[in-house]
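Can't paste images in this forum, so I'm doing it all in text. The chain is below; anyone willing to post the predicted structure tokens underneath?
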Amino acid sequence: MSPLQELERSFFGRPLTRRMSWFFPEIMESPGVLAAPSAAGWVRLNVYDGESSVVVVAEVPGLTDKDVQLSFDKNVLTLTGERAAPVPEGYTAVRRERPSTRFTRAIRFGVNIDDENITAAVKDGLLTVTLPKVQRPAPRTIPVHA
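Text version of the structure:
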């Protein structure tokens, strides 16, 4: 094997993956980290584009409307919140797989949104945000006078 092939193999092949998993085990072992930010601290979501609106559905298990904040500025929807994991009084935590965490997700939209009529609701662990699109007027012809 040529030195160039060996270098390429070590940087782009399994040896690099093994080295990275040793340095960053939480990142490399989390399924879907490269496809979607689903590691701890992130909220997984789906975005649906319809004719008259865009709908964002985010997983927020165990959260209520008071735990989640939404803001919309310059065609960017920002979702922030916090999940608390208090220990019941009189108990000591022995194992924690659902730690307290803060999260933030920002979604930029390529269509104009009517920010005055955005609605959001939390039900059954899902936050559903409906963002109506702004209906642009049809193009018109402008007469030019001499």
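Helices lie at 3-12, 14-23, 25-29. Residues 3-12 form the longest helix (10 residues).
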